[in-house]
Amino acid sequence: MANATAVQKAEQQKRLRINEEKWTKTLMDVGWTALPSILLDKQHALGIDSIDLNILLQLAKYWWKRDDLPYPSKETLAQAIRVNPSTIRKRIKRMEKEGLIQRLDRYDVKGGQQSNYYSFDGLIEKLRPHAQEALDLKTKQKGEKSSLLKKKKAAGVSAKLQLVPGGKKK
Q: Does any domain span residue 97?
């Protein structure tokens, strides 16, 4: 198990270096956010517009571990994307109603209400069928490409077999 963790860390470091080559080390050192591409690919299918996507991206920026849900305030989100906090409230309420995110109450030690936690479980579940469809298509295309390469290779071997000594075809 410890060996698997070392391998995972090595892979993560490799991905970070690749991203540093693309974005520069300075930009990556400030921070970065991991997101499945299917969210960007299927935003329209989920009914997510650019403001909703921006809100989700901002929330994701604060979500680093599965069980440590993000909890930025609506004001923080509004400032980051330069909209009114009421826009954030309305959009989050709608996305919650549509099952994309879930707000969970958060309280301080004295019992005072704080900014909500946000869960992405609904969004993840709604994206799974789209991801599976994309994976199935990728597998199909890979199979078709492999089949085409085999046919080309077989055709090349067949053409070589038709040659007689001296380079002339039979």
A: yes
Write the pLDDT tens digit of every residue in 9-66.
888 888 878 888 999 999 999 998 989 999 999 999 999 999 999 999 999 999 999 9
In a domain? residue 169: no
Residues 6+ apart with CB under 8 A from 60: 33, 34, 35, 70, 120
* φ, ψ at 61 (rounded to 5°): -60, -25
List of long-range contacts for 1-6, beta carbons under 8 Å, 24+ apart: none
What is the spatial distance between Cα 73 and Cα 76, in angstroms, rounded to a whole number? Answer: 5
Say if residue 25 is in the same domain as residue 42.
Answer: no
Kindly tell me if the per-residue pLDDT of 170 is higher than 80: no
CA distance 107 to 112: 5
Tokens standing for residue 152? 């080309």
Q: What is the pTM of this model?
A: 0.76
Neighbours of 122 (CB within 10 A): 15
**CATH number where 84 lies:** 1.10.10.10
Which residues lie closer than 8 Å to 116 by C-beta, 6 or more apart?
71, 103, 104, 105, 106
**Structural domain span for residue 85:** 34-160
